[in-house]
Amino acid sequence: MYGIAPRPWGFEVSLVRNGTRYYRQFGKASYGGLEQALVQAQDWRDAVVRSVPPVARRARAEKLRANNTTGVSGVFCQVASGGRVRAWVAKTYIGQDEILRTDFPVDSVGNAALSLAIEEREKQLARMSGLARLHPAEEAIRQGMTVQAPGPRTSKRSKSEITRSTNSSGVSGVQFKMPNAGHPGYWLATTFTAGKGSVCKAFSVKEHGHDMAKSLAIAERGRQLAQKLKDAEQHEHQHEHEHEQEQAQPQQQKQASPDFSFQYKASGHPARP
């Protein structure tokens, strides 16, 4: 599959545009399964292909190679025996069956051979158009010829919502704890928030029974996640409000500045112009 590689944990997308690599991972744990991970990977790949087209063919042809000695791409010299420059050549690959080439022998045109070759190279490049061709799938994606997978997209889960392989409850953030062999144990709901730490609440198996304690812990975990989301939204709104106040302060200060021209006039001095 173009630009998408399967991995044991999901899929990774890797595309290169003009020397820049676009890379992202889509784990099955983050999207609730392989199917959604693949759909998300395809959507992201298609978005990159549409928004970042390949370089123009002419721009790629004008890029200097490491072995270029003239300072102009597509222009090189032919050297005769003894190291003497025999001719300057302008050469451009236009298409599979069209290669333009013009030689300018030094014996015929003298020192103007190099400048003539450079001018000819410009004329050849003028006949080049379009974008550099990459994978055949690219053109199909850009022209909308590919069919996107139907159905809704699952939002990426946060780390706190991912169920770990060691989880014993089937619900992230809920686990069974047994301090020692003789202890009946308890179900624990835990939610971590960056900058605030963890919120934990335990439900004793001895008090509630095993199944009820587990159900209570799962419900508590849901409340913790809801509160975490609510706090994040409030923090975002507060940040926006503070930003609006900062933007309004310069205008308020400008409006509240005293009118010094009036003070000068009132004290008997001429008003400022």
In a few lines, what is going on in this structure?
This protein is of the alpha+beta class.
What does this structure look like?
The protein folds into three domains: 4-54 and 134-142, no CATH class; 58-126, no CATH class; 159-252. It is built from nine helices and nine strands. Strands 1-2-3 form a three-stranded antiparallel sheet. The chain has a three-stranded antiparallel sheet with strand order 4-5-6. Strands 7-8-9 form a three-stranded antiparallel sheet. The N and C termini lie far apart (74 Å). The longest helix is centred in the last third of the chain and has 47 residues, at 210-256. Mean pLDDT is 82; it is low at 260-273. Helices cover 40% and strands 23% of the residues. The chain has helices spanning 28-31, 34-51, 57-61, 106-109, 113-126, 136-142, 205-208, 210-256, 260-266, and strands at 4-7, 10-17, 20-27, 75-79, 85-95, 98-105, 174-177, 186-193, 197-204. The protein is elongated and about 105 Å long. By secondary structure, it is of the alpha+beta class.
Q: Features of this protein?
A:
273 residues; alpha+beta; three-stranded antiparallel beta sheet; 40% helix
Order of helices and strands: EEEHHHEEEHHHEEEHHH
Number of domains: 3
Distance between the termini: 74 Å
The tally of strands reads: 9
Global morphology: elongated
Tally the helices: what do you get?
Answer: 9
Mean pLDDT over the residues: 82
**Looking across the biggest beta sheet, what order are the strands in?**
1-2-3
| Most strands sheet | 3 strands, antiparallel
